[in-house]
Amino acid sequence: MSKSEDAFTALRSDILDAVLPPDEPLVIASLRERYGYGWTPLREALPRLEAENLVVFQQNRGYRVAPVSAKSLRDLQAARLAVESALLQSSIEKGDGDWEGRIVAAHHLLAKAPSPAPGMKEEGVRHWEERHDAFHDALLGAGGSDWLMRFQRQTADQLHRHHRFMVHGPNSRGILDTVDRNAFEEVLQKTLGLDHHTMLMEAVLSRNVRLSLALLKEHIGFSLAVYETLWPENDAIDHTD
Q1: Is residue 81 a contact partner of residue 220, using CB atoms and an 8 Å limit?
Q2: Is the backbone of residue 60 left (phi > 0), alpha (psi -120 to 50) or beta?
Q3: Would 135 be classed as within a structural domain?
Q4: Does residue 241 form part of some domain?
Q5: In this structure, are residues 135 and 158 in contact, taking their beta carbons and an 8 Å threshold?
Q6: What range(s) does the HTH gntR-type domain occupy (predicted)?
Q7: pLDDT digits over 181-230, tens only?
Q8: 200 within 8 A of 53, measured Cβ to Cβ
Q9: What is the spatial distance between Cα 115 and Cα 111, in angstroms, rounded to a whole number?
């Protein structure tokens, strides 16, 4: 890859993982020192990140990492439901035996990955995330719409950034000591545990569109419930100016 592509990839990865947190100023001189790239690769990377809504440009302030908020999280979850519902229904209608095999294989690998839990090392979390994403990609893989898949990936990236910031950002420090631990672990297990993924797989493989869409909606609702359990106030995760 070119240096410009390398710089773009490095910045994008750190923004998605909230290593570069929301509203972080992106000053070229500081980025050069941090990443070791020259002026040109970094200058070329920032507009590309802006085009993906990961970076914003403000007059007299320059580039900054795009903000996150509870409102945008809910908006993204609604967008995810709309896009993935359309892709899932289309996949059920069009998917062949190879598609079914990919779903079963992805579920098998997901079953072997321990679900994330408070205190799990980053390596373990990433391993589960990769297998979890692969399972959902397999479910949607026969949808037949390149545009919808692009929208799905963009939405997934933005949700990943929101989730990472809420779990690892400064607003999350000590939060687990202030919430109902049993309630949190219950909703976390529903979201990340294998049981609901298995139910979703079985409904999809049986070609039951209505049940599959209902389970997908429930699954996405679980994800939002995790963060509403941690941040019950609507504006508690806002990180905007």
Answers
A1: yes
A2: left
A3: yes
A4: no
A5: no
A6: 1-68
A7: 676 666 666 677 788 899 999 999 999 999 999 999 998 887 777 776 66
A8: no
A9: 9
